[in-house]
Amino acid sequence: MSKTTERVPSRKKTKTPDHVLGFCDRLRITCSYAGIEGYGSLSAIARISGMTAAGVRLLFIEDRPPKFLRLFLQLVDALIGEIKKQRGVEIERNKLYHYLLSDSEWPFPEAQIYSSPSVNQGLDKFDKVYLGRVYVLLDEIAKECGVNVFKDLEHGHLTKLLDRVLALCSKQNLDLDASDSRELIKSIVLLSKVGHL
């Protein structure tokens, strides 16, 4: 039986199954797909999943799922609900469960996650200093993720990456010094790295 078709365990008081490294990156990608991004994203995850904000923060700090299966399944179900609400897309519980734990099959539809106008449109909304800070921060975060945006990404992928980051800067008025902003940009870089931006 493949990993994605195995039955998800019931909500007994059991520990969450083992997971592979990168859980928090996969959770960031999933949250981004569900529209949970930017400032307040940890609180939003806590609110929809029934976890505490401190518990959610530990998932990212320790790169691990919740210790108890019940909480992990609540998180999976909450993310599926948010994706359906935000995008109108049904995600299979088994696929998301196994993707988050073991980086198995990509659970999201193959359609582009984000499509936007050219990166050159709307640049006049930003002053040159802010744009420079965005580019430097994007390059710095990408390098932390093992990506050289100017060498590793094709021109089209780099354009989509810049489009997405600048759209969020405009829409959410990002404070580039805030840790939530860095986390948000990191999730966008990770989506671009796996070719799903």
Structure report:
With 197 residues, the protein is an all-alpha fold. It folds into two domains: 23-102; 123-193, no CATH class. It has helices at residues 23-33, 41-49, 53-61, 69-87, 93-102, 128-144, 155-172, 179-193.
SSE order and pairing:
Blueprint: H1 23-33, H2 41-49, H3 53-61, H4 69-87, H5 93-102, H6 128-144, H7 155-172, H8 179-193
Helix pairs in contact: 1-5, 1-8, 2-3, 6-8, 7-8
Mean pLDDT: 80
The largest pleated sheet is described as: none
* Total beta strand runs: 0
Whole-number total of structural domains: 2
The stretches of 5 or more residues where confidence is low (pLDDT under 50) are 1-6, 111-120
Question: Count the helices. How many?
Answer: 8
In sequence order, what are the helices and strands, one letter per element?
Answer: HHHHHHHH
Instruction: Please bin the fraction of helical residues.
Output: 40-55%
The Cα radius of gyration reads 17 Å
- Strand content bin: under 5%
Give the overall shape. Answer: globular
Report the end-to-end length measured between terminal Cα atoms. Answer: 30 Å
Structural class: mainly alpha
